[in-house]
Sequence to fold (154 residues):
Amino acid sequence: MKKETVCPECYSGGPRATPVKGARECLEKHRQYRCSRCGRLICIDVRGEKKARCFMPFGSAETALLYLRAAEVLSGKSCGIYELIYSRGDKRYRIFENAEERDTFLRKNPRVRCLRDTPVFTGARYKPPKPEQLMYPGLEQINQYLLEKDNQGD
Fold:
């Protein structure tokens, strides 16, 4: 992961990189966090405890990095991305608040391993969002965002 090319607030190299899947539906139906630096929108919709997209496993560290800021906003603290190895040998990346939360997950999931004690990436010092950064974008805003996303190829 190239830390030098990412937005210092939301950790993305592309200001329209998210949503990754189902962009229009996500933007229309879910609450978003808006990066104050690059304007990227990140889904922070929560369905129960730790049921937001940012707390699910990702296929790559790069994709997990796109959701790290959302996890920090929802947790209220800096978080880290950990590399996990599942029983079939496939690697997944999950965001945890700290090593204790990771260890609790591993105890509940004995077929999952984590070879490193430290995260593969940790967010910068946590900065709480301003209230206006948490929003449901309007239709005009959504259309403009998706047009820019299509033009950038993200």
Remarks:
- The beta strands are 32-34, 41-43, 80-85, 91-96, 121-122, 134-135.
- Residues 61-75 form the longest helix (15 residues).
